[in-house]
Design a protein that fits this description.
- The two termini are 40 Å apart.
- By secondary structure, this protein is an alpha+beta fold.
- Helices cover 30% and strands 28% of the residues.
- The strands form two sheets. It has a seven-stranded antiparallel sheet with strand order 3-4-9-5-6-7-8. A two-stranded antiparallel sheet has the order 1-2.
- The longest helix has 17 residues.
- Strand 7 and strand 8 form a beta hairpin.
- It has two domains: 67 residues, lambda repressor-like DNA-binding domains (434 Repressor (Amino-terminal Domain)), CATH 1.10.260.40; 156 residues, Umud Fragment, subunit A, CATH 2.10.109.
Length: 235
């Protein structure tokens, strides 16, 4: 909902309460400190409210922004609930366009996969961990043609468990290269990544696929996270 739509929702709320006899323009003027003319002009679309004025109006009415949202729109954009206590945790499978959304909302969800909580708890984040306010784990799917770059000869679609708190290029295990998911050109690729002379080099395991060389500053922002587990499914 945009700012204009938000003000329209507030106008509808005020008209409804005034029509029901729950509120008067004089009472609202007293609570907000605005003049009755100011309030009347707002309700009749002759003027808008600035942000601070909108905050004053909401506080006087005992409302929050959520009270003005359409319940259907709120349900679509609501964040997924926190995982319940138990042995298993639900991880959202999301599309590539949503891979860098900080909080995974219901509208991004394709399905849920269950992982053992003990397994996820053992996965170390980078130190210091990045994106602490982001949903940490997501699952992303890459089709067989792209999965072959890292898992050659499998002819399989891959489902990747991605730790989005781990965007450091430091190795997770000594002597082993990390595999990262990178958002690129409307899709995603899974590659090894290393920094070199201001560029980020994305290398496949299969030499038949070309390495990708991207400006490092932009490419680091496109790193979705480190691949923590791979599941291959025959296409």
């Amino acid at each position: 909902m945009g700012f204009v739509a938000l003000q329209e929702a507030l106008r509808r709320h005020l008209r409804r309460r005034i029509a029901a006899g729950e509120l008067t323009g004089m009472e609202l003027a007293r609570k907000t400190g605005f003049t009755q003319a100011h309030i009347s002009n707002f309700i009749n679309r002759k003027r808008g409210l600035k942000l601070r004025a909108l905050d004053r109006m909401l506080k006087a009415l005992g409302l929050t922004l959520y009270d003005l949202l359409d319940p259907r729109e709120l349900a679509i954009h609501a964040a997924l609930p926190a995982p319940a206590a138990g042995d298993f945790v639900d991880v959202a499978v999301v599309d590539s366009a949503s891979a860098l959304s900080p909080v995974i909302a219901r509208e991004h969800l394709r399905e849920m996969l269950k992982f053992r909580k003990a397994f996820l708890d053992r996965i170390r984040a980078a130190s210091p961990a990045a994106r602490k306010n982001w949903t940490r784990f997501v699952a992303l799917q890459v089709e067989a043609a792209e999965a072959d770059a890292m898992w050659p000869g499998t002819a399989s679609r891959a489902t990747l468990l991605v730790d989005r708190h781990y965007v450091s290029l430091d190795p997770y295990r000594t002597g082993r290269r990390n595999i990262y998911v990178i958002q690129r050109e409307g899709g995603i690729v899974a590659r090894y990544a290393e920094s070199s002379d201001g560029s980020l080099i994305l290398q496949p395991r299969d030499p038949a696929f070309p390495a990708l060389v991207l400006p490092e500053s932009a490419a680091r922002e496109a790193i979705v996270g480190r691949v923590a587990q791979v599941s291959l499914k025959t296409a």
